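Example 3.
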Amino acid sequence: MSSRVEAGDRRSRNPEGRDNGRRPDMRRVVYRETHSTRAAVAIAAAVLVTVFAAYGLLEAAVHAIGQPAWLIEPQVAAQRIVALPAGITPLLLGAIGAVVAMVGLVFLLNGILPGRRARHLLSGHAPGRPAVVVDDEVIASSLARRARLAANVTPEQVMVVVSQRQVLVNVRPTSGVPVDEGTVLAAIQDELDQMALDPSPAARVNVAPSGVVGA
Amino acid sequence: MNSTPTLLNRILLTILGLKLLAIGLLLMLLATVPAVAAWWHSWSPGVWNGINQMFNATRFPGRTQSWLWIIVALVLLLLIGLMVAWIAQQGKGRSNVLASEYDPGEVPGDVRIGGGVAEQALKHALAGRPDLAGATVTTYDVKGTPALKVRLLPRQGVAPHLLAAEISELLAALETVVGRETPVLIHIGAGARTRFGRAERVR
């Protein structure tokens, strides 16, 4: 069946080397999966603009047909804006300005920052295989399990923090039972090597000086 | 994976953010710095007079209203329409065709395989696994080529690379059945169900 489908492939856009044509596409897909699309902020911004435009539309339409304004006459509003520092307490004006500037700053930063999500790519895969993107939380819980087994402690005594370029493993040993930092680090490093994360984080183990009683 | 216009989102958000930031800073400076207030008083009445004259020059013959208001209303209407279109672009890209191919056999016509085939088959294969708290499979249309997204919610402590390798086997089997290579993205994620569910103990 497979060969027949291949034979009829002349209608697809890149009959030869489909895999080569697919690679950059996959890179783009992975990029989009590891970076925020800003869909939520974009919707919020669009709704904000729509609300203001709708109010403006209402006042303009009311004015165009010669009816009295709904909230404020546009001329009066413009005159107030022209006379601005007067007619309003400086505190209120400053507060309004601060709020508007803050909203603007949030939108601006969402627009220009890279917007990387807390995810890693598993790069240890052959070209034809599926691309795998993993949440940092999943990596952390997997590493925590491995560290717990290596240190021989309960799950509550291990805390793992995974960030883009660093893995921090905090272990609180059981009182009277020493934990070997090197063993834990070796186990974590082995697990990380198997995962082959991209970007690859550096591992650090932190054994707490005080132990837990009765664990 | 979906076709959310990320670049457009960034550009529009940056423009809107810069505008709001400028307005907010101007208001704050007006409230605090007298020199800015003096500049504002020398600059804004001129602009306002210009706008006023424009409105006066465009009155309906014999009436007091300007037809410029209708233009303003139309422009705002257009702006609202554009905003709605922008919102509608977010998160698009789901499709329900996994493969569609010309069939050179005796029977005339095309062969189409719906996305439901992959979704149902994979869901069924993943349903009994004890290390997964949930799994969803969706078909997307990425620039004209169908692609699969497999979202897995493993329980706490599951090694993601081993899970990915096993799912890759399943996907390879699916590819042999469908007879066509489909780009696949596996997303191993965490959610409320994995956070508060029981941890995976065996394995």
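Strands of chain A lie at 119-122, 131-135, 158-162, 166-171, 197-198, 202-207. The longest strand of chain A covers residues 166-171.
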